[in-house]
Amino acid sequence: MTTSHTKTQRQKARLARRLLRHHVPLAVLSMVIVGVIWVLLTHEGRISRLTVATAYAALILLAGTLLLGPLNILRARPNPISTDLRRDIGIWAALLGVAHVTVGLLTHFPGEPWLFFFNGGRIPLRLDIFGIANYLGLAATLILVLLLALSNDWALRRFGTQRWKALQRLNYILIGLVSIHALVYFGYEDRGLPFISVLVVIVSVVVGIQLAGLWKRKRKQAVTGGVDSNMALQ
Predict the structure, then answer these.
(1) How many CB atoms sit inside 10 A of residue 180's CB?
(2) Which of 35, 72, 115, 150 is the least buried, fewest Cβ under 10 Å from its Cβ?
(3) Rounded distance between C-alpha atoms, residue 225 and residue 228, angstroms
(4) Percentage of residues in the chain with pLDDT exceeding 70?
């Protein structure tokens, strides 16, 4: 058996494991989250319900990608630079995020999506609260697509560990942009306290666990007098 054949067999086995252990459960989880929010918003139209539902599903999975690293540190478990589980959660977060943007562009201005970003006034750009929220969402979408493109072995080899990890840390900026975008939109659309509360809880948990992981990493470095390359938070 040749080396290339053995490598191909390993890759197929790895893909099969990821499909069974990660992608199927993540697909089910995504549908459950979307389904629950869909039911909670029965008083709204289908497009609006699907927009909010995919947004929350994407946010929850994005939070998951930011929790795995610090949770490994807190439990004193190995925390490698990249894992299949973290990648696969990120892939589903990105897919749901793109779905949210696609469906969201069908609201407010059906058939005229440019009106989310431009108006017919003296200043062509929308600089009101609604426009700013949309620009924040656009920036978040670009980062999301970039992170999706990086979620593979080729990108890790191409950029190298340090540069790849530096790009992956855009996740922190991403969740900040998403949070502000959501808060502004919820105020604009008057979603009510329950939806805002869930958003605040999710972000607070991420920030709290991240800070706890950072504290433990710093404490370990102080004890060992060095830097553990496997202690990256994300």
Answers:
(1) 15
(2) 35
(3) 10
(4) 93
User: Angle of helix 24-40 relative to helix 46-74, nearest 10 degrees?
Assistant: 130
Alpha helices (runs of H) in 19-169, residue ranges in sequence order: 24-40, 46-74, 84-104, 129-150, 153-168
Contacts of residue 79, Cβ cutoff 8 Å, sequence gap at least 6: 69, 72, 73, 230, 231, 232
| Of 221, 170, 184, 200, the residue nearest 66 (C-alpha) | 170
Q: Are 71 and 64 in contact (CB under 8 A)?
A: no
Residues 97 and 122: their CA atoms lie apart, in Å, by: 33
Q: What is the CA radius of gyration of the chain?
A: 20
Query: pTM for this one?
Result: 0.89
| Contact by Cβ (8 Å): 33, 60 | yes
Closest CA to 55 of 95, 24, 5, 84: 95
Return d(Cα 186, Cα 59) in angstroms, integer.
Answer: 14
Query: How many angstroms separate the CA atoms of 11 and 135, rounded?
Result: 40
- Look at the block and give the residue holding tokens 């995919």: 54
Residues 179, 210, 193: CA angle, nearest 5 degrees = 35
Tell me the backbone φ, ψ of residue 118, rounded to 5 degrees. -130, 155
3-state secondary structure at position 219? helix
Tell me: the pLDDT tens digits for 137-182?
999 999 999 999 999 999 999 999 999 999 999 999 999 999 999 9
Element (H, E) at 226: none
